[in-house]
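Researcher: Let's do a round of design. I'm pasting the structure tokens now; please hold your answer until I've finished.
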């Protein structure tokens, strides 16, 4: 590792040292050792599978929800995901089926995928007990806790199949 690479990290690691004019050269070896910065190439080539039907699924789901989040109504396509209700890796036959999808914004999509939120039999949002209602973050309260019981806005076409939502609630949701 050259001194320049360590120097790039110095302002983040010890702003007092750089501001006070301490001898940075003397601290470089110690910082490099302390940081355990990885050595070697930072990229590699890999052969990977790609999801061939994902673009169809996304287009079908977002279009049926009129490019709006089914929970919040957010209409910024770059922040919307076509979320699989039964995960992609669980059922190959449902991968491209838009009835296995819900249009959710990035936050709710992640929470749905990981299990902190799901939908009850009436398609109202349910929130896991792992979501602390005493959290002081306004976003946490307004977008997770306060939306508990909020009904899912159903699409004009390709409404979620009840069986897929039941599967999600039983297998993915963490009560």
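Researcher: That's everything. Go ahead.
Model: Designed sequence:
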């Amino acid at each position: 590792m050259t001194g320049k690479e360590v120097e790039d990290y110095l302002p983040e690691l010890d702003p007092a040292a750089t501001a006070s004019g301490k001898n940075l050269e003397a601290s470089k070896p110690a910082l490099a050792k302390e940081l355990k910065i990885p050595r070697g190439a930072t990229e590699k080539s890999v052969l990977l599978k790609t999801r061939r039907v994902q673009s169809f699924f996304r287009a079908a789901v977002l279009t049926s929800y009129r490019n709006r989040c089914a929970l919040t109504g957010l209409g910024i396509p770059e922040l919307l995901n076509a979320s699989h209700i039964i995960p992609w890796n669980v059922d190959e036959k449902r991968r491209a089926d838009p009835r296995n999808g819900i249009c959710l914004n990035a936050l709710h999509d992640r929470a749905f995928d990981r299990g902190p939120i799901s939908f009850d039999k009436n398609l109202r949002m349910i929130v896991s007990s792992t979501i602390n209602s005493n959290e002081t973050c306004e976003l946490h309260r307004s977008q997770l806790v306060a939306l508990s019981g909020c009904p899912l806005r159903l699409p004009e076409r390709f409404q979620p199949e009840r069986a897929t939502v039941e599967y999600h609630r039983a297998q993915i949701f963490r009560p």
